[in-house]
Amino acid sequence: MNEHRFSDIATGIVGLALLVIPPLCWATGAPNPLAAPGDSSGRSLALLPQPMAHLVMAVCGVVVVAAAAWQNRAVRIAALGAFALLLDAGALAAIGYLPFMVVSAVTGHVDNLSAYLSIPLLMQLGMAVAAASLLWTVVDRPVSGTHERARIRTARWTRIAMIAPLFYAATRVLMALDVPGFAMPSMDVSGKAAGLGLALAAVGGTALTWGLIRPWGERWPRWIPFAAGREVPVAFPVAAALAVSVLVMAAGKAILGLVFTTSTEVAAHPMAWLPMLLWPLWSVSLALAALNYRTRRTTDPEIACRTRLA
């Protein structure tokens, strides 16, 4: 399948990068890009000494390359575990801040976009793409279950997956409005605008998640050029939801790490961090909603009938 070939290529490229970068860093004395506390996207291995960070990255690279070369389910699950270790909140933050960055660029602050050229962030984005595509190959198996049961489960998990981003968006709006309990005195106008951009991104993500249980999640709306009224390919929303699920889980892991290490930042602004404690639940519920959506669509009696007639 084309999707599996893309996964093999993306996973292979990222795996080779994970193998090559550690010896290059060791030879040049450069810090490991995933153990660079000064970069917000380079913190996943920051607690390790540089030699150990190099070793861990290289071992993960071996596992990831093996997953690309050998289509074995156990090896691919091990590679997903490697990605879970290396991924952090950087990729999701980059996507969340994109609306603010675009507006900043339009208003003349193009220099803000330089943050997207960070090597740790580019690595995080590459690993996120590879992990999401690899996850798709793991779950892309023959569908089992009934249409009605899948319909009920899709609705349940979709509603749960919509709670966390809406809660998060609400807190960012309250922070921007300086509501007591949410206000952050150190946040300037630019920071508030960025927060509103994050809220917008979260609401947009919630709307797309809602599509898993809405008619326009099965047929393109009339305002979509060249596709209006056509069936939405089942793989498209499933793959997109799984990709977001990977990003959210990586960010959730980083947030939980801050909470359990009693970060002073969390203690100083608990209401800013509280909604992020729901992110692991958001990740799991979104993945389950997507997989049950796939079962529901592929076991739909009408679709099955059309397939037989074709």
UniProtKB/TrEMBL annotation:
Superkingdom of origin organism: Bacteria
Annotated transmembrane regions: 51-70, 77-103, 115-139, 160-182, 194-213, 234-260, 272-291
Coiled-coil ranges from the UniProt annotation: none
Keywords, ordered alphabetically: Membrane, Transmembrane, Transmembrane helix
The protein's name: DUF998 domain-containing protein
